[in-house]
């Protein structure tokens, strides 16, 4: 799944790597959907019409409080991508998480 880099909170939702070492900031994703999601969880519901673009097979949770950096050389393939609306939700959650509102 492509994920706009954390810098997209301040810039446009770019899929370009950050810096000379070509790092991206992916978030952890799990097929477990909590009964009470955290404010930093984005539930990707398989009944959502935009779900197909994610490349996922079942409803999943994007856990934005579990970010990491990775060089793009570690990424083997792109599973799918988030819709513009989902990317906006990610940006809003990251703004809240990092106190950028």
CATH first level: Mainly Beta
| Spatial strand arrangement across the major sheet | 2-4-3
The helix-and-strand class reads alpha+beta
Kindly report the CATH topology: SH3 type barrels
Query: How would a textbook summarize the main sheet?
Result: 3 strands, antiparallel
- Assembly type of the chains comes to single chain
Span between N and C termini?
26 Å
The geometry reads as: globular
Give the helix proportion (percent range): 10-25%
- Low-pLDDT stretches: 1-14
Total number of helices: 1
In the CATH hierarchy, the architecture is Roll
pLDDT averaged over residues: 84
Q: How many domains, as an integer?
A: 1
Describe the structure.
This protein has 101 residues and is α+β, with helices and mostly antiparallel strands. It has a single domain (6-97), classed as SH3 type barrels, CATH 2.30.30. It contains one helix and five strands; from the N terminus they run E-E-E-E-E-H. It has one helix at residues 84-97; strands spanning 23-24, 27-30, 41-44, 60-67, 70-71. It has a three-stranded antiparallel beta sheet with strand order 2-4-3. Strands 1-5 form a two-stranded antiparallel ribbon. The chain is globular and about 40 Å long. The model is unreliable at 1-14 (pLDDT under 50).
Write the layout of secondary structure elements.
Elements: E1 23-24, E2 27-30, E3 41-44, E4 60-67, E5 70-71, H1 84-97
Antiparallel strand pairs: 1-5, 2-4, 3-4
